[in-house]
Write a structure and sequence with these properties.
There is one protein chain. The protein is an alpha+beta fold and 171 residues long. It has a domain at 31-88 and 133-171: SH3 type barrels, CATH 2.30.30. The chain has helices at 2-15, 95-102, 110-129, 141-144; strands at residues 38-43, 47-56, 60-65, 70-75, 79-85, 133-135. A six-stranded antiparallel sheet has the order 4-3-2-1-5-6. Strand 3 and strand 4 (70-75) form a beta hairpin. It is elongated and about 70 Å long. The two termini are 40 Å apart. 19% of the residues are buried.
Length: 171
């Protein structure tokens, strides 16, 4: 019964992993990305805003939401928390069931090695998912500018209503 429970937990973990936006660069191409990083904001009336970070200044954040394909302005004073993802992480979730199955070859020692293999592979998988993330706990708004499409502010000649997703490059 315990084995089935652990197997169900592993399958649920693999299935529940979130998809990341396709415009995020791989770790090799971080310095040549033309888009802003993916940001998830929780604002004061418990509103969730997710999309590409376009710009940030001293009092507002501009985010391009994929669902509406329009820019949204969020006042910094209304932001409860934010999380930014600036590159695609490596996916090690495949190793959870594979390396756990190797425990079956250990005979009676599998009683100890199976939980150990599951623990290690789950922690590596979770750690790799958090590798390219920052949040308001470890990032200031002045440093957040570096991850925007327009880190020095939106140029005068660009109207924010004209900023759209490019369908071929976005998931």
């Amino acid at each position: 019964m315990k084995t089935k429970y652990i197997l169900y937990c592993i399958i649920a973990l693999i299935i529940s992993s979130c998809a990341t936006p396709a415009y995020l660069p791989t770790s090799d191409n971080i310095d040549v990305n033309q888009f802003g990083s993916y940001i998830s904001i929780v604002s004061k009336p418990n509103t969730y805003i997710r999309g590409e970070l376009i710009s940030i200044d001293s009092n507002k954040i501009v985010v391009l939401k994929k669902s509406t394909n329009k820019c949204v302005i969020v006042l910094i004073k209304e932001v409860k928390s934010f999380e930014i993802k600036y590159a695609l992480s490596k996916n090690y979730a495949w190793s959870i069931p594979l390396l756990s199955l190797f425990s079956l070859t250990h005979g009676y020692a599998a009683i100890a090695t199976f939980p150990l293999n599951v623990l290690v592979t789950v922690s590596v998988s979770i750690g790799s998912d958090n590798a390219f993330k920052y949040s308001n706990r470890n990032m200031t708004y002045s440093k957040l500018k570096m991850f925007a499409r327009f880190p020095q502010g939106i140029p005068q000649r660009i109207n924010i209503e004209n900023i759209k997703y490019i369908s071929d490059t976005i998931e």
